[in-house]
Amino acid sequence: MSGPYRVEFYRDERGQSLIEEWLWRLERDDARLWAQVMWLLKLLEQQGEDLRAPYVKWNFHGPISELRKRYRHHYIRIYFWRKGEAIFVAAAGELKKSKESDDALLSYALGAYRKEAEE
Question: What is the DSSP annotation of the chain?
Fold first, then answer.
């Protein structure tokens, strides 16, 4: 991916990345859906803070923003935050059959943001 902005994947203190694991499973199980997710991440890298609805909901949950797209019968959601001027950190992603966000993933992303802010 390339653009004036950069998307990084959050890693916890053990070096594990929930979003990388999710992307790996998507690529293995549904390459077309994975391609849609990668397109969405690339769009964020290209447009950054200029990206608007329907693809992003800025500060959706405090500092956590939400990349979003409907594809087939799924709602793609990626939870991320801004770090500095040109970096976005993606912490978690999900596929939903409904428009509702997963509270557990939002809490995870918020906790990850807070941990990184402490460093």
Answer: --SSSEEEE---TTS--HHHHHHHHHHHH-HHHHHHHHHHHHHHHHHGGG--TTSEEEEEETTEEEEEEEETTEEEEEEEEEETTTEEEEEEEEEESSS---HHHHHHHHHHHHHHHH-
For residue 110, the enclosing domain spans 6-118
Let me know if residue 1 belongs to a domain: no
Q: Whole-number mean pLDDT of the chain?
A: 93
pLDDT tens, residue by residue, 45-97: 999 999 999 999 998 888 999 999 999 888 999 999 999 999 999 999 999 88
Residue 37 lies in a domain: yes
CA dist 77 and 54 (Å) reads 12
User: Would residue 91 count as lying in a domain?
Assistant: yes
- Give pLDDT, residue 102: 83
Look at the chain and report how many structural domains it folds into. 1
Q: What is the pTM of this model?
A: 0.93
